[in-house]
Write a structure and sequence with these properties.
single chain; mainly beta; two-stranded antiparallel sheet
């Protein structure tokens, strides 16, 4: 009897020694619970900062709080119990930017007298971009210690479109004359940054461009693991495998130029063809989770997640 009791006590002591206490010293639960919410962010800047702390450089910058997957996507979770969570992935992006530039007024035929300067007119460039994306998924979890594994699937839908508009201070004329010209001084813009590339005579100039609407759908299975370093704060990695389809409609541009009999000033409309893509690959949407990376190989995402 004494030997049996000793064996039981020893076994209990060994199991207790290897068991993990899943509450903090203050009694806070380490792992997520039912009704908890969670949000994830990119963990790479944190590890970069910690690593740099040991390189002898005293001017290391503090880590930034980056969007997960690098494309301004918010990823949140709602736990329905300690082993199951719903995931929501959201991006709502609307931008409208206007840039202006002054160029010489072609209608002015009088040379300025010092210290006066030549009169100028204003060119303007406006760009608009829309990115709307939403995804929903379900996550299942395994593990009874601080180390938790999880798996599940996401379904995603995204829409994007863009347009540019140009206005010019100098008027294009069908013929050259006093104060009129078929090649008015016009600004050339970098349509990506809005920077002025240059200004000079232009025999034709863009008035409007509009991309076709891009619509995409995708599904993605995922698997990952995370370790809870603090109560309700975990660091983990996730990998996925998905397929997606994306199609873009026709685009259109309008260009002002002279031509025809007379001649006359007219606006030439040009269409650009649409396109479509389909892919099935490891983490197809990684990096641009609401986008398309074609044949690029996937990479896992390193993330830190806060539960509350």
């Amino acid at each position: 009897m004494k030997k049996t009791s000793l064996v039981i006590a020893l076994a209990f002591g060994v199991s207790s020694a290897f068991a993990q206490d899943l509450t903090s010293k203050k009694g806070e639960p380490i792992l997520p619970e039912a009704e908890d919410w969670a949000i994830s962010m990119d963990a790479s800047p944190i590890f970069t900062y910690v690593g740099n702390a040991f390189n002898g450089n005293t001017s290391n910058a503090a880590p930034g709080v980056n969007w997960l997957n690098g494309n301004q996507t918010i990823i949140g979770k709602k736990f329905i119990d300690e082993k199951t969570a719903y995931r929501v992935l959201v991006r709502l992006g609307f931008t409208s930017q206007t840039y202006k530039n002054l160029v010489n007024d072609d209608a002015n035929t009088t040379a300025p007298v010092f210290p006066a300067t030549a009169p100028q007119v204003q060119d303007k460039f406006s760009m608009k971009n829309t990115n709307i994306a939403i995804g929903v998924g379900k996550e299942m979890r395994r593990g009874k210690t601080r180390l938790q594994g999880y798996y599940g699937a996401d379904a995603m839908l995204w829409v994007s479109m863009s347009s540019n508009k140009f206005t010019y201070g100098n008027t294009m004329s069908p013929t050259n004359g006093t104060g009129t010209t078929t090649t008015p001084t016009s600004t050339t813009w970098n349509t990506s940054s809005g920077a002025v590339v240059g200004a000079g005579p232009a025999g034709s100039r863009t008035l409007k461009t509009k991309s076709g609407m891009t619509l995409g759908i995708g599904v993605r299975g995922f698997i990952g693991a995370e370790y809870f370093v603090f109560p309700k704060i975990s660091v983990g990695a996730e990998y996925g495998w998905g397929l997606g389809y994306q199609m873009s409609g026709k685009g259109k541009s309008e260009t002002e130029t002279t031509g025809g009999t007379g001649p006359t000033v007219g606006v030439v409309e040009t269409e650009t063809a649409g396109s479509s893509k389909f892919g099935f690959d490891t983490d197809l949407n990684q990096g641009t989770i609401f986008g398309f990376r074609g044949s690029n190989t996937g990479t896992g995402s390193l993330r830190v997640t806060f539960h509350f």
